[in-house]
Amino acid sequence: MFGYRVTAASILALSVGCLFAAPVAAQDATGGAPVAGLANQDLIEDPAIVVTGSRFGARIAVDSPTPIDSITADELASGGETELQNMLRVDVPSFNTARPVAAGVANFLRSPTLRGLSTGQTLVLVNGKRRHTNSDLNVGNQVGRGDVAYNFNALPIVALKRVEVLRDGASAQYGSDAIAGIINVILDDSIGGDLYATSGITTRGDGEKFTIGAGYGLALGDGGFVRLSGQFQTQGASDRSRADTRQQYFGIGPNGQPVLPSANFGSGIGLTPSNGALDPREATFDRTGISPFGQPNYDNYSFVLNAALPVGGDAELFAFGAYSDLSGTNANFFRRAGQDETVRGIFPDGFNPFQTTNLVDYSAAIGLRGKDLAGFGWEISTVYGTSRTDIGFTGSNNVSFGLDSPTEFDRGGTRLRQWTTNLDLTRSFEIGMGSPLNFAFGAEYRQESFRAIAGEPASYGFGGVPILDGPNAGRPASAGAQPVPGSSPEEEVDGGRNNIALYAELEKEWADVLLTSLAARYEDYSDFGSTTDFRFAARLAVSNTVNLRGSVGSSFRAPALPQQLFQRSETSFTGGVPVATRIVSTVDPLAPLIGASPLNPEQATTFSLGATYNSGGLSASVDAYQIDLNDRIVLSSQFSSPALTQLLQANGFGQIRAVTFESNSVDTTTRGVDVTLRYASEFLGGKLTSTLAANFTDTKFDRVAGTPEALAALGITTELFDRRSQVRLAEGIPQSKVTLNFDWNRGPWRINLTNTRYGKVSQADLLNQTQAQVDALVKGFNVTLVPRANGNFDIIETFGAKIVTDLGVSYDLTNSLTLRIGADNIFDVFPDKQVATTAQSQLAGARGSDNTGIFPYSYLSPFGLSGTYLYGSIGVRF
Predict the structure, then answer these.
(1) Which of 382, 698, 801, 809 lies 20 to 30 Å from 29, alpha-carbon distance?
(2) What is the pLDDT of residue 32?
(3) 483: cis peptide before it, omega within 30°?
(4) What is the spatial distance between Cα 478 and Cα 484, in angstroms, rounded to a whole number?
(5) How much is the pLDDT for 329?
(6) Segment Disordered: which positions (predicted)?
(7) Assigned domain for 274 exists
(8) Is residue 783 assigned to a domain?
C-alpha cells in the first residue's frame, strides 16, 4: 500500500518504546516502588467531549463513529507558535501546513491539508457554523496551488476554547467542501480575563515575532455571558537567500557601446562569461539579500466577540463575530539595472518590487435555539462573512511612464461575500432496543458573491514613453507595473450564486453496544445544478475499553467562486526562471481560445475503518481511510509556445508568456492510516502525558486529461496537468508525519518536548532536460529521472525526511501568572537543498531549481526555512 512500510514501522516501534519507557523509568528511580505523590485517579484524564460530527449533542470523542480530535486552547498554546494552523500539527496526525515563500498573497494564507487532500477540501466551522474563505486564489507554485484558503490569522488563540477536527468525509452533514473533514473552532465562553504576550527571534537575528492578546468574559443575565478577545501580531521577515551572482549592469561592447547583461549564474563575478566587459560597479555591488527568500513581514489585528443569553423559558439567543486586518509585504525577484524592466533614472542599481497585501475579514452570526417546539429541539441562525484582499507594489516602476513613473501602485483586489441561513430541528423517538431513535432535519440557504476590482491606471496602463537608454533605447517599453501589470477594468468580474440544501440524519444506539448513524443531504446550486450525498457510520463496543468504528459515504465540493471567476496576471517560476503568466477564468475572453471550460463539482466516495482503546491513562486509535475523488479541480499546467505568444499579443496581453486555468482535469485515489496514542503516567514525581500522532498517506492518479484541442492546434503537447503539477499535488506534502510529544507537569513546572518527523517531499521543476544537462545538474542530489519520448528527461527531486524538535518550559509564579521560555527547531534543522545552478550547468545550457543560484531550498519545506527560533512569553489570568 505504501512505499515506506519499513521506515514507518521502525518509527512507530521506536515511538511506542519511548512512550512506555516513562513508567518503567519512574519505577526504577525508587528501586521498583511507584513514585509517590500522584493518585491513580490523577493519571486518568478527563475524556474529550466533542460536538462535531453529530446533530444530537455532545459525546465522548472515543465513542464517536468517526475519528475526531479535540485540542484545548492550553494544549494549542504549549509551544512557541502563535498561528492556529501551525499549532494543530502536533495533535492532528494528518494535518500539515505549508510554509510558502515568494508566493504573493499565499505567504499570508498558509494552506493546511488534511488526509493528503488540498485546502479547499476541508471545511472550517466556527461554533459549528460555516466560515467564509479568503477571496483570493492561490496561484503560486506552492502546496494548495489553484485553491482557496481560510484566513486562520483572523481567529486569535486567546479567543478559543478548543478546536475539534473531524477526520472523515462529512458533506452529507455539512455540505460542500467537507471531503477530507471538518475543522470546528469553538470560541471561549468563560467568565474572567486572560492576558498574554510572547516574543521571539531566530538564532540568525531575523524573523522576529511579537504577539499580545487579551480576553475578558462577563456574566450576562441569568446564565448568559459575553466575551471579547483581541490580539495583535507582528512578524519580521527572514532571509535565507544566496548572493545574486548575475551580471547586473550593461556590459561594455568592443566600441564602448552598452550591451544587455547576461542573466546567467556567475556572469557578474567572472564564474561564467559576461556579455561585454563588466561595468566597474559589478565589483562593488552588494549582491546579498536583494531577492529575500524566507518568511514575510506583517502586522495583524484580530478581534472576536462571543455571547449567549437565555430568553423566555428554554430558549437561548446567541451571537458571535470576528474582525481582522492584516497588512504585509513580501519580496519578488530582483530587477537588475541592465534590464529593460528598469527605469534607471529612478533605480540606477536595480530594484525589487515588493508586493503589499492587505487582508480584511469580518463575520457576524446570530441565532436562537430552544428545546421544545411542538416536541422538537430547534435552532434558527444566520451568519454573514466577507473577505477583502487588496494588493499593491512598492519600490516598483512602470517603464512605459519613464521618469514620471510612480514607484507605488494599487494593483487591484478581490472581494468575497457569503451569507448562510439555517433552520434545524431534532427529536427523539422511543422505539425500544436501547436508547431512543434520534432524528434531525433542516434546511439551509446560502448566497455567495465574488468581485475582482481593477487597480489604478498606472499599474496596468501604457504611458507611451519608450525605453530611455541602453542598447534598446527608443524601442517600445512594456506596459504595466513590475513585477506584473495590475488588473485592468476589462478584467473586473462581478458574479455570484445561491444554493438551497435539505438534510436529515438518523442516529440510534442499539442495546448500548452498536451505534449507527445515517445522514443524507440534497443541495441545488444556481450555477451548476444539484447533488445528493449520504453517509453511513457505525461504532461497535467490543468491550468496555475497545470500540470498532467505520463509515462510508459520498461527498462533494462545489467550485469555489474564485476558482471560477478569478483572472489575473502573475509571475511564476518555471525551471528557476520567472515567467509572466495569465490565470484565465471561465468568463475570460481568452477561455474559449485556449480550451478552458466551465467547472463541474468534485465528487468523492470516502471509506473509513478503525478502532479505539480507552482505559485508565491510555487511549489509542487507528483509522484507515480511502478517498476516491473524481473531477478534481486543479490549476492546469503552465502552457507556452510561440504561437500562443502571438495569440496573447493579438488579444492585448503582449507581456504575457504563458497561460494557466482551472479545470476538472484529474481523478485521484488517496489511501492512508491515522494513528493516535495518548498515555498518562507518573514520572519524577509529576504527571507525564505522552502523545503519539502519526499519519501515512499516498495519492495516486486514476485519470489525467490530455491537451485541450485549442492548445494542441497551437503546437502544444503538454498534458492538462503535467508532471510538475502531478508531483506537487501528490508528493508536495509529506507522505508521512510522526509526532511524539511529552508533556510533564509537577507543581508549578511544566516541560513540553515535541519531536516531529516530516516525511519526504518531492518536486519536478526541471522538465525536458537533455542528457548533458542532467549530467551537469544532478550530481550529489537525490533525484529520479523519468525518460521522455524525445530522449530527454524530467528530473524529480526528493527532499528527505527530517526530525524537528521543539522544547518549552513554563513556570507558574502564582495561580494566575505563568512564564514560559522555549525553542522551536532546537537542532537548527533545514530541508535538503534543491538542485543548484553551477558554472558547469550554465555551460550545458541548464539552470537548477534555485532561481539562478539564489534560492537554495525548495518552497515545499513543511517546517519552514527559518532554523532555530527562541521565544519567551508571559500569561496572566484574572
Answers:
(1) 809
(2) 34
(3) yes
(4) 10
(5) 96
(6) 471-495
(7) no
(8) no
Q: Is 490 helix (H, G, I), strand (E, B) or coil?
A: helix
Residue in 603, 447, 563 with CA at minimum distance from that of residue 130: 447
Please report which helix (H) or strand (E) contains residue 18, including its range. helix 5-28
What are the helix (H) ranges across 560-679? 561-565, 591-594, 642-650
Q: How many other C-beta atoms lie within 10 A of the C-beta of residue 862? A: 23
Distance, CA of 219 to CA of 556 (rounded, Å):
42
Torsions phi, psi of 31, nearest 5? Answer: 70, 30
CATH of residue 227's domain is 2.40.170.20
Mean pLDDT, consecutive 10-residue stretches, the chain (878 aa), reads 38 36 34 39 65 82 89 83 80 83 81 90 96 92 88 93 94 94 96 96 97 97 96 96 97 96 96 97 97 94 98 92 97 96 98 97 97 93 98 97 98 97 96 90 98 96 95 94 91 95 96 94 94 96 96 95 89 59 87 92 97 92 97 92 86 79 96 95 95 96 93 89 94 95 96 96 95 95 96 97 96 96 97 96 93 93 94 95
Question: Of the candidates 150, 185, 183, which has an alpha carbon nearest to the alpha carbon of residue 560?
Answer: 150
Reduce the secondary structure of 24-64 to three states and give it as a string.
Answer: HHHHHCCCCCCCCCCCHHHHCCCCCEECCCCCCCCEEHHHC
In Å, what is the CA distance from 512 to each residue of 46, 508, 541, 547, 616?
A: 21, 10, 8, 12, 21
Joined grid coordinates for residue 452 = 475582482
- CA 509/CA 57 separation, integer angstroms: 14
Q: How many residues does the chain have?
A: 878
Amino acid at 625: Y
- Residue 151 to residue 415: CA distance in whole angstroms: 14
For 236-296, where are the E strands, in sequence order?
251-252, 258-259
Distances from the Cα of 753 to the Cα of 44, 70, 80, 523, angstroms: 21, 20, 12, 46
Using alpha carbons only, what angle is made at residue 75 by residues 72 and 78, rounded to the nearest 5 degrees? 150
Q: Which of 99, 151, 148, 93 is nearest to 126 (CA)?
A: 151
Q: Which residues of 138-150 are buried (b: 16+ CB within 10 A; e: fewer)?
A: bbbbbbbbbbbbb
Name every residue whose Cβ is closer than 8 Å to that of residue 222 and which is 6 or more positions away in sequence: 310
Predicted confidence at residue 549, as pLDDT, reads: 98
Closest alpha carbon to 767 in 742, 790, 741, 743: 790
Residue at 648 is within a domain: yes
Q: Which pLDDT score is estimated for 4?
A: 38
Beta-sheet strands, E only, within 35-151: 49-50, 59-60, 68-72, 95-97, 112-114, 122-126, 129-130
Angle at the Cα of 266 from the Cα atoms of 265 and 270, rounded to 5 degrees: 155
| The predicted structure's pLDDT at residue 33 | 32
Number of domains in the chain: 1
Grid coordinates representing 82 are: 502563535
* Strand partners of residue 500: 445, 524
Per the CB < 8 A criterion, the answer to whether 229 and 158 are in contact is yes
**3 state SS of 710:** helix
d(CA 690, CA 228): 34
pLDDT for res 878: 92
Predicted confidence at residue 49, as pLDDT, reads 80
Question: Is 152 inside a domain boundary?
Answer: yes
d(CA 226, CA 642): 63
